[in-house]
Amino acid sequence: MSQLYPVVRNLDHVMIEAEDPTALYRLFSEGFGLPVAWEFGDYGGLWSGGVCAGNVNLEFCRFKELRFGHRDGWDFETGQARLGGLAFEPTMPVSEAIGVLSEWGVPFGGGQATENWTDLEVKGLLDPPGVVFLAEYQFDHDAWQAGHLEAFRAAAGGALGVEGIQEIHVGVRDVEEAAPAWSRFLRDVPAADAAAWRVGDQLILRLVPWGKDEVASMVLRVRSLDQATEFLSDAGMPALETLDGVTLDAALLQNLHVQLVDGAAPGFGEP
After folding, report:
1. CA 156, 158, 162, 164 torsion: positive or negative?
2. Same domain, 174 and 244
3. Among 101, 123, 146, which residue terminates a domain?
C-alpha cells in the first residue's frame, strides 16, 4: 500500500477526565469565557461537555462504566482530574486508516461507532488507561468547527485572551525509547524537533521526560500574559510565575498542569 500523506490531520480535542467534570467545564466556559463547543450533558456512556480553545477543543468528561470497550480504569479521588486522552482527526476514513496503520506496524484496538462519529484506539503510546485515538466524524465537521472558531474570535479568547494551545506535553519514561512509536503513528506529520511534531494549526505535540507515559500538561498561548495574570489575580485564582510564563494553580484545576505563555514571545505559529 502506497501512503503519500499522514494518517493524522490534526489534534481534534484533548479529553480531560475528572471526578467532577462539570466544575472544570464551567470554569473554562463561564469562568474563562471560552465558547461552548457542545453543552455538558449525558451522552449515553459518558457525561461530557466541550469548549473551544481556538485550534483545539477541550472535552471535560467522565465515563460511566465502559471506556473504549473496557472497564473504566481511572480511580478518581475527590477533586481530581487527568489529561486522559488525545483525539486526532484522520485524513481518511477509519476503515482505510486501519490498513495503513497495519502496514506501518502501529498497534490499534477497538473503538466505538455511533451515528455521529467512529473512534479507533491507537495502542502502545500511553500507559493504560490513557488513550490515543482517531476520531472520524459522520457530519460536516469542518463547518461545525468553523462556527466554534467564529465564536472564539468574537469572544477574543475569553477572559484570559487565549490565542490557542501552543503545546501538548506527553510525558514518557524515556524520550529516545518512546519517540519511534510516536514517529510511526505520526509518520509524514511535520517534525518540530527530534521528539516533537506539528499536529495541527499552530500546535506542537512534544515528548518530555516524566515518571510514566501519560499526557502531562498543556501550554496555552495568551494575547497578553500581564492581562491574563491580572484577571486571575482579580478573580482570586493564583498563578505561579515561571521562567517563560505562569502555571495555573493545580488545586483550581483538579490537579491538571496548565501553563500560560505570552503571545508576544516568538514561537507561536512559526512554520
Report:
1. negative
2. yes
3. 146
Same domain, 81 and 188: no
Answer yes or no: do 182 and 52 share one domain: no
**Does residue 57 form part of some domain?**
yes
Domain count, the chain: 2
Query: Residue 225 is placed in which grid cell?
Result: 500574559
Give me the residues paired with residue 13 across strands. 57, 87
Phi, psi of 163 (to 5 degrees): -100, -20
C-alpha to C-alpha distance for 119 and 169, rounded to whole angstroms: 22
Q: State the amino acid at position 169 in one-letter form.
A: H
Name the strand (E) or helix (H) holding 179. Answer: helix 175-185
Q: Is residue 155 part of a domain?
A: no
With contact defined as beta carbons under 8 Å apart, do 83 and 216 qualify? yes
Q: What is the pLDDT along the chain (271 residues), one digit of tens a residue?
A: 445 579 999 999 999 999 999 999 999 999 999 999 999 999 988 999 999 999 999 999 999 887 877 776 778 888 899 999 999 999 999 999 999 999 999 999 877 778 888 999 999 999 999 999 999 999 999 999 999 999 999 999 999 999 999 999 999 999 999 999 999 999 999 999 999 999 998 999 999 999 999 999 999 999 999 999 999 999 999 899 988 899 999 999 999 999 999 987 655 444 3
Structural domain that includes position 79:
8-146
Q: What is the CATH number of the domain that holds 108?
A: 3.10.180.10
| Alpha-carbon dihedral 264, 59, 19, 233, rounded to 10 degrees | 20
Output Rg (C-alpha) for the chain, integer angstroms: 18
- The verdict on 169 and 132 lying in the same domain is no
The answer to whether residue 186 sits within a structural domain is: yes
Q: What pLDDT score was predicted for residue 82?
A: 95
Question: Could you give the dihedral angle defined by the CA atoms of residues 113, 43, 153 and 29, in that order, rounded to the nearest 10 degrees?
Answer: -150
